[in-house]
Amino acid sequence: MTRIGISTLYVQWVVLINHYSSH
After folding, report:
1. Origin, by domain of life (predicted)?
2. What is the pTM assigned to this prediction?
């Protein structure tokens, strides 16, 4: 896996967590 791929996964997790935390 490339560093860009890992960064993308990390960003997606942060967005998901923020989305569920706001509820």
Report:
1. Eukaryota
2. 0.48
